[in-house]
């Protein structure tokens, strides 16, 4: 159980923001902080990590107080058990993939965990390479693995996939889900990508003007009408074509391209690049094993 | 045959000065790169002063400070039995002050130019700032370190004004190559002056060339 209450006046790009974030996170949950740039999502993560000091607040993680400004408790970053994945990976260029992970080992920690982590993120072949030789997606997998070496009590992901292309993103999302479940992590994700949020998170907190405006399950937050759909997918519109009387909307769902027939009224609001939910309720989808 | 002593003395002085500067320069550069203290601009200014000040000014004040008639010089004399004026030890101290900016500035800008996430990631992984400096930051600014070391060394080799003020011209103790050249010219020994000069010219050319070759990546295999 993690209780967070943080208050800080921030100087953001569009004026002053008074950040006031209160969160209760259950063990094993993956929650997302969502909102426009400059509302204080990253600052919230940095305060949890002890990289930024709040004006006042509290952070209690599994009955250990990390921060309590009233009682003048403020654990150093080094003493907080956190995993942090930055958008720009922040791998150490002077060390190989394996050395980056080994650097994260705590005193007297067993080295075997490194092999296991390297295997989970499928980097066996690249473990002796320097980060500069790796693609963005591979580097972020190293960063994710490195963040897990010291068995963190919270995993903080600060827009970890923003610099990657759609295909890589989808693959990395699978890795994040995999480690989140396998290591029973409690994870806080900062993301702009609604598709990603729906795929990954249990709960979303929408931050506006420095405060949590709404909280709920991703589908509740991101879809205006409640559907009792038999199946739903979230994707991104890549093209809208007019064909005779109907429109063909091409949607990228994960790595698959799907064409959907839509009426003019449905297309009116859509633009290329929009996140959409594709749902069906009238038909029973077929399911077939792929050999 | 020329007297090799001034040249040997010069390189001994430069080597000792550079070693001391590495030890002093790294923590000082670290503090200057990351501190938010209000004293920082003042320290930065003091460190950079030898770049613009005539060496004779530094030499003049060191001469006063080191003089046994002065409080500081007297104290050093009483406590350590060191007579800094007209001595090799005095030259080392003067050279350290004189070449300080050449060590500090490249390292400071190297450290400040690293992404701040390197430090933060290391702290998050539970590592102290010392471990972070030694294992992450310094290995990633090797070109800056090399530049600092070589410039300090070369600058000390080229020292003249400060040495003249506080070292004088004692063979084997304070008569470095630059002084010896001046001396020979005054005695109209142009040939000897020329030999010293050519040696200094050649050595400094080679040292600087090696730095530019290394930092330009010319020694790396598979250079793109």
Automatic annotation (TrEMBL), chain A:
Keyword Nucleotide-binding in annotation: yes
MF terms in GO? ATP binding; ATP hydrolysis activity
Q: Which Pfam families match?
A: ABC_tran (PF00005)
Keywords associated with the record:
ATP-binding, Nucleotide-binding, Transport
Concerning SUPFAM superfamilies, the annotation shows:
P-loop containing nucleoside triphosphate hydrolases
Q: Which InterPro entries match?
A: AAA+_ATPase, ABC_SmlMolc_Importer, ABC_transporter-like_ATP-bd, ABC_transporter-like_CS, P-loop_NTPase
- Give every ABC transporter domain span: 1-234
> Which SMART domains does the record associate with it?
AAA
Q: Entry's PANTHER family?
A: SPERMIDINE/PUTRESCINE IMPORT ATP-BINDING PROTEIN POTA (PTHR42781), SPERMIDINE_PUTRESCINE IMPORT ATP-BINDING PROTEIN POTA (PTHR42781:SF4)
Specify the protein name.
ATP-binding cassette domain-containing protein
The organism is: Aquimarina algicola
From TrEMBL, chain B:
Q: Which GO terms describe its molecular function?
A: molybdate ion transmembrane transporter activity
Instruction: List, alphabetically, the Pfam families matched.
Output: BPD_transp_1 (PF00528)
One GO cellular-component annotation of the UniProt record comes to: plasma membrane
Q: Which residues form the ABC transmembrane type-1 domain?
A: 7-211
Question: Which sequence ranges are marked TM in the entry?
Answer: 12-34, 46-67, 79-100, 145-166, 195-214
Question: Which keywords does the record carry?
Answer: Cell membrane, Membrane, Molybdenum, Transmembrane, Transmembrane helix, Transport
| Membrane topology summary | Multi-pass membrane protein
The record's InterPro entries line, in alphabetical order, gives:
MetI-like, MetI-like_sf, ModB_ABC
User: Does the keyword Transmembrane feature in the UniProt annotation?
Assistant: yes
Location(s) in or outside the cell:
Cell membrane
Question: What's this chain's function?
Answer: Part of the binding-protein-dependent transport system for molybdenum; probably responsible for the translocation of the substrate across the membrane.
* Family under the similarity heading: Belongs to the binding-protein-dependent transport system permease family. CysTW subfamily.
Q: What is this protein called?
A: Molybdenum transport system permease
Task: Tell me the organism's taxonomic lineage.
Answer: Bacteria, Pseudomonadati, Bacteroidota, Flavobacteriia, Flavobacteriales
């Amino acid at each position: 159980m993690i209780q967070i209450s943080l208050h800080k006046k921030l100087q953001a790009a569009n004026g002053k923001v008074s950040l006031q974030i209160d969160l209760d996170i259950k063990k094993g949950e993956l929650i997302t902080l969502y909102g426009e740039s400059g509302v204080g999502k990253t600052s919230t993560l940095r305060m949890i990590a002890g990289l930024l000091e709040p004006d006042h607040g509290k952070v209690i993680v599994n009955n250990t107080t990390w921060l309590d400004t009233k009682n003048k408790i403020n654990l150093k970053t080094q003493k907080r058990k956190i995993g942090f994945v930055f958008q720009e990976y922040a791998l150490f260029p002077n060390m190989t993939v394996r050395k980056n992970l080994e650097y994260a080992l705590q005193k007297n920690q067993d080295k075997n965990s490194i092999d296991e982590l390297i295997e989970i993120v499928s980097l066996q072949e690249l473990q002796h390479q320097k980060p500069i030789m790796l693609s963005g997606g591979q580097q972020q997998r190293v960063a994710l693995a490195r963040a897990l070496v010291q068995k963190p009590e919270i995993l903080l992901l600060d827009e970890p996939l923003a610099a990657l292309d759609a295909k890589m993103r989808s693959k990395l999302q699978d890795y994040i889900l995999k480690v989140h479940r396998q290591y029973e992590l409690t994870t806080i994700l900062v993301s702009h990508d609604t598709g990603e949020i729906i795929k990954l998170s249990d709960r979303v907190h929408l931050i506006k003007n420095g405060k949590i405006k709404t909280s709920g399950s991703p589908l509740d937050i991101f879809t205006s009408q409640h559907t009792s759909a038999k199946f739903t997918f979230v994707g991104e519109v890549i093209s809208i074509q007019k064909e005779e009387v109907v429109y063909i909307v091409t949607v990228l769902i994960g790595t698959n391209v799907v064409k959907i027939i839509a009426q003019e009224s449905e297309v009116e609001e859509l633009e290329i690049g929009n996140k959409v939910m594709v749902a069906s309720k009238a038909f029973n989808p077929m399911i077939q094993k792929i050999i | 045959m020329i007297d090799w002593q001034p040249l040997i003395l010069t390189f001994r002085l430069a080597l000792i000065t550079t070693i001391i500067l590495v030890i002093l320069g790294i923590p000082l550069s670290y503090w200057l790169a990351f501190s938010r203290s209000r004293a920082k601009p003042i320290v930065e200014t003091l460190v950079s002063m030898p770049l613009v000040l005539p060496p004779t000014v530094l030499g003049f004040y060191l001469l006063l400070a080191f003089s046994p008639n002065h409080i500081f010089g007297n104290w050093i004399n009483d406590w350590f039995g060191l007579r800094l004026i007209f001595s090799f030890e005095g030259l080392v101290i003067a050279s350290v002050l004189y070449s300080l900016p050449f060590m500090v500035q490249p390292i400071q800008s190297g450290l400040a130019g690293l992404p701040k996430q390197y430090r933060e990631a290391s702290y998050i992984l539970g590592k102290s700032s010392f471990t972070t400096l030694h294992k992450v930051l310094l290995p990633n600014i090797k070109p800056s370190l090399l530049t600092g070391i070589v410039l300090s060394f070369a600058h000390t080799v080229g020292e003249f004004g400060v040495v003249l003020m506080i070292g004088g011209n004692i063979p084997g103790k304070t008569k470095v190559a630059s002084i010896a050249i001046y001396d020979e010219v005054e005695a109209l020994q142009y040939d000897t002056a020329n030999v010293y000069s050519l040696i200094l010219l050649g050595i400094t050319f080679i040292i600087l060339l090696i730095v530019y070759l290394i930092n330009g990546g010319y020694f790396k295999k598979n250079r793109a």
